Each structure stands twice: as C-alpha cells, then as structure tokens.
Amino acid sequence: MTKECVCGVEIADNRTLCKECAEVYGINPHEWPEWFRWKFNDLRREHVSNISHNHLRLDDIEPNGSGGYRPKREVALRGCRTETHLYEERGNH
C-alpha cells in the first residue's frame, strides 16, 4: 500500500507530509488551513481503512495465524487451464 500526501505525492508510511508541504504548511496541524487539515484527515482515514482491510467482505479474508485476518491469496492456475479449454469436453483432455 502506498500513502499519499495532501498534494498527491507518494510518501513513506512513517511520514505525514511530503518535504514541500512540510516546508510550506509546517508540521503542526493546528497551524494548517482548514481545507488542508480536512484533506489530510480524509486521506489518513482512507489509509487506515486500507491497512486494516475494513473494505473486505468475510468471503475475502482468511486467518493469518496470529489471531488476525488477511486478504485471501489469489490462486494461480497452473497447467493447461486456459480459457480455450474451459469450453471443451472432459474427454478431450
């Protein structure tokens, strides 16, 4: 997952703002303009939701072995299971 600054630049997970926004607006949220604070909080809520997988349905998760859950892994089909074989008779295989 990537984290996004208010200006749209990708930033590291341990950062709150990119270097430019930190220089322009500062790092104290109480000094930010209202629109900037609103956008920052909105992006933070979205990021936390994505990290906690709240957007997944029960059918899309599995236990992670540590008491929590993770998204189910996609199963890769191996061998001759291509789209052309899906519609052929079993006897042809």
Q: Compute the number of strand runs.
A: 4
Main structural class: alpha+beta
Low-confidence sequence ranges: none
β-strand percent reads: 5-15%
Note the total helix count: 2
Strand order of the largest sheet: 1-2
Portion of residues within helices: 25-40%
Order of helices and strands: EEHHEE
Main sheet summary: 2 strands, antiparallel
How many separate structural domains?
1
Average pLDDT number? 80
What is the CA-CA span between the terminal residues?
A: 41 Å
Radius of gyration: 22 Å
Name the shape in a single word: elongated
Which tags fit this structure?
93 residues; alpha+beta; two-stranded antiparallel ribbon; 28% helix; elongated
Descriptive notes:
The chain is an alpha+beta fold. It has one domain (3-71). It is 28% helix and 11% strand. It has a two-stranded antiparallel sheet. It has a two-stranded antiparallel ribbon with strand order 3-4. The two termini are 41 Å apart.
